Amino acid sequence: MEMIIKETAETTSITAARWVARLVREKPNAVLGLATGSTPLKLYQELIRLHQEENLDFSEVTTFNLDEYIGLPRDHEQSYYTFMWKNLFSQINIDPKKVHIPDGMAPDIPAACAAYEEAITQAGGIDLQVLGIGSDGHVGFNEPTSSFASRTRIKTLTRQTLKDNARFFDGDESQVPQHCITMGIGTIMDARCTLMLAFGKAKAEAIAAMVEGPVAAVVPASILQHHPHAKVFIDDEAASGLQRADYYRWVYDGKPEWQIDA
Fold first, then answer.
1. Alpha-carbon distance 125 to 189, whole Å?
2. Of 68, 117, 143, 236, which one is the catalytic site residue?
3. In sequence order, what are the residues at sequence separation of 6 or more whose Cβ sits closer than 8 angstroms to the Cβ of residue 64?
4. Sign of dihedral through CA atoms 25, 26, 28, 34?
5. Closest Cα to residue 47, out of 1, 88, 78, 76?
6. Are the beta carbons of 155 and 141 closer than 8 angstroms?
7. Catalytic residue from among 51, 100, 138, 227
8. For 2-253, which CATH class?
């Protein structure tokens, strides 16, 4: 697990975006796993800038989103389908046929989940998976105690997640759907590289548990300790709970030029 700690969410996101951009330039038909929520917004804004100002080409890229609420139509303002098209896809030259987002309105959700897994396999697997982390250590919508072997499936959200996500529903927790479709932890771990983003003191405890605590299902993101190519991009506030933060900074700052990804 490689830790990249920068001063602010903006500088951290720009650093992460450069790494994504390098992958897309080196492998134009890359398969990206994407996340939603407030955390990746600055990353997406930088990718848009790179496309518009530096000709970063997404025409051959395929994407798979981590999750979607069950019961929200695609045109609902809080659906992740709407989020992705508003905040990224409509502003880059991606082929709509290569965009995959779980269908929370599918008549047969289990069948849709199985088809989603098959689509990832047919695409050749995910090259890079963008991730955030919940305040309780969840990743995607894999809540605490989720199986490390899980695949794309239905999940019931915890009260903590409903509370955390109420801010997107005018603060009304009762309006947050209780069920979702999410890639499983096993699916996430199959990605060739994972790129975790986390910002602010509210994420410090979860980051510390993920990075320096034991690998345990009660902190689902902790399984990334076992991923062969996991990168964690965080700001100073999110790093404030790490006992070895100074060491992580020293390691990254001392990398030889040939080893720096972007």
1. 11
2. 143
3. 31, 32, 33, 34, 100, 101, 116, 119, 120, 123, 126, 183
4. negative
5. 88
6. yes
7. 138
8. alpha beta
Q: Is 229 a catalytic residue?
A: no
Domain boundary assignment for the chain:
2-253
CA distances from residue 173 to 77, 140, 177 in whole angstroms, order as listed: 16, 19, 9
Selecting among 117, 136, 190, 236, the annotated active-site residue is 136
Catalytic-residue membership of 77: no
Task: Please state whether beta strands 179-182 and 67-69 pair in parallel, antiparallel, or not at all (unpaired).
Answer: antiparallel
Please indicate whether residue 108 is annotated as part of the active site. no
Strands (E), the chain: 2-6, 31-34, 62-65, 67-69, 99-100, 128-131, 153-156, 179-182, 193-198, 230-235
Give catalytic status of residue 57 as yes or no.
no
Per-residue confidence of the chain (262 residues) as pLDDT tens digits? 999 999 999 999 999 999 999 999 999 999 999 999 899 999 999 999 999 999 999 999 999 999 999 999 999 998 999 999 999 999 999 999 999 999 999 999 999 999 999 999 999 999 999 999 999 999 999 999 999 999 999 999 888 888 888 888 888 888 888 999 999 999 999 999 999 999 999 999 999 999 999 999 999 999 999 999 999 999 999 999 999 999 999 999 888 765 655 4
Whether the CB-CB separation of 214 and 131 falls below 8 Å is answered with no
Read off the pTM.
0.93
Looking at residue 261, what is its pLDDT? 55
**Which residue in the list 67, 117, 164, 190 is annotated as catalytic?**
67
- In this structure, what is the dihedral angle of CA atoms 124, 88, 181, 136, given to the nearest 10 degrees? 110
CB-based contacts of 246, cutoff 8 Å, min separation 6: none
